[in-house]
Amino acid sequence: MSVHPKDKTSEVIGLLSLALSGLLTLALVTYSSLDPSFSVSVFPDRYLNWVGKVGSWGADLLFQVIGFSAFLLPLPLLLIGYKKIRNRSIDFPFVKLFGFFTLIASLSTLLSLIPLPRLARFEFLPGGLYGTVLADASVTYLNRAGSIISASTAMALSLLLITSFSFDKTLSWLAARQWNVFAGLASRYAQWKKRRAVHRELERVEKEPVMLKTVPRATPAPAAADVEVVDTPFRTVARSKPEVSRPEVTVPPVRPSPREESEADPEPRRKESVPDAYQPSRRPELKPKSTVHRLPPLDFLQVPEAGPAVNEKELLERSERLVAKYAEFGVTGHVIQIHPGPVVTTFEFKPEAGVRYSRITSMAEDLCLALRAESIRIDRLAGKNTVGIEVPNLTRQKILLRDIFEGPAFQRSGSYLTLGLGKLINGDTYAADLTGMPHLLLAGATGSGKSVGLNCMVCSILYKASPADVRFIMIDPKRLELGLYEGIPHLLTPIVTDPRQASNALAWAVGQMEARYKLLAQMGVRNIEQYNEEIRTAGNSFGEENGPLPYIVIIVDELADLMMTAGKEVEGSLTRLAQMARAIGIHLILATQRPSVDVLT
User: Fold this and answer.
1) What is the pTM (predicted TM-score) of this model?
2) Tens digit of pLDDT for each residue in 229-246?
3) The listed CATH number (3.30.980.40, 2.60.40.650, 3.30.720.210, 3.40.50.720) that belongs to domain 312-392
């Protein structure tokens, strides 16, 4: 990879930082109290410190000032050296510098507060003069226990500022792998309470006596047809309807526990059918029957294999051929950076003064011949004075779903409708929020990846949201792509394959949209996020039936087939949903092979 001489300054700084970090580490590790320094006055024949006089005096000064915290000083120099050599910038450098100084101060204070055994090799205070002064001032106002807690808190905050550690990500990571022990204990405790309540109810009913009055002799015996046999789980009592009177014994129905119910009824639960028409008087049931839902762990997904290593020699040869091809046509410049990605490699070409941008872009076909590539894309790089030349890789890297879900773009997104879409040209994962789009159209010929993209979007939502947060209506006229999602708890209806049922489902969605707008008007809010926030803030004051509204995602796999069979019924519903459904949390994902005017009206 050719690098311009002007861009080597960062590498020089990086190499000097690494060397300084190594010298400082040697000086601190090989420190000896027998060497002359600021605190020791002797005339030795030779220095025991490996860095000599400079190392002895420098290490003694650092140890006397900040104590054992001096061992942290080589770390920022090591980080700066690595970043500079790799020509990468440090994110938020002033914040991390402040965090590092806070770490030094808090650690020195802790070392002064905690009694440590004195080492004969080190003739200085564990926290140094700096830590001793801070510890004495802190003990004056907070005593020793309060000072230790304050210093520990300051050290934890400094680590949060320096590193990318996040408590939220750590807890989410633990919950995704089912390490949340407290949730399991709470669930088992709730099941035990239900079983105990059922057992007590059974004991109470069995102990309660059933009082029957004696039939008078003057009354003739009832006919056999008038005898009713009451069959209870405890006993069988024959009684006569008109003659025998007794106090009514109310036996409350005893429901088995969920575990017993599932064992007794092996039949699968019957799914709700699509309503024939929307009824404004009846509010549709959107809440799932089970309120406990655990997001699927990433262990279900395939572990990505190690991709092919970047061949720097091959990239260097390609960049040289690129520069030579431009030079043949009088376009002078040089490649200053190469960004290898999973599918394409971007070469940053910096033209010399006087070279027009149009001359660079007009040579795309000539570069295809020189680099033996199928196609090449040339465009300006935003915020830079260079031109990006994207060349397809000879060996493409497989991008797996787990790679995307473990990436920072997907993990940091807090939206329930986060869609993991793939990787950028530089290899970073990319995710988008459906609520900001607010609808999505997938178009392309057979084999272009529509089904893969659609399944990736559905799985993204399933890994982010529970059935109480997001519900699906899936319409699959081809009966091929969406059938594997049959039975998931997020479905409002079974997979819709009949065009007439599809028109009914879309008409129901329009009615649901109008009903939700009425709710938003009653609450005086503008969108579903504000409505759900008001409901959560108010708690149960609005009633249990008025809970937070889930998002509804309507997925149509092949829109062209649907428009051909039920175009008139479907067109009006899709138009209204596309125009108005965004604010109330209803979003469309449409896929088609032909995005022509007869399909998209």
Assistant:
1) 0.51
2) 444 343 333 433 344 344
3) 3.30.980.40
